[in-house]
Amino acid sequence: MRTGNEPITARSALRMRFWLSVWGLLWTAAGTSAFAAAGQTGWSIVCGVLLAIVVTNLVVVVHRIRQGPRYQPGRDVPPSP
What we know:
The protein is mainly alpha-helical. It is 69% helix and 0% strand. The protein has helices spanning 6-9, 14-38, 41-67. The protein is elongated, with a radius of gyration of 18 Å.
């Protein structure tokens, strides 16, 4: 049942997303290096692209964690529809 206070009491799963990103970082780095060592250029490129995506996600998550739980955008940011 919707009570109307969801935006106030909403909790983000940023810590879980952080640890899943670290796990993905380890696997994609290992995959990139293993495929490169095995001479599989195509798979190494695929893992490298995934590695770049994981690193970008990790940077965004760390930035949002550092903003803190009470972050509010400024007056120049319009409200969500």
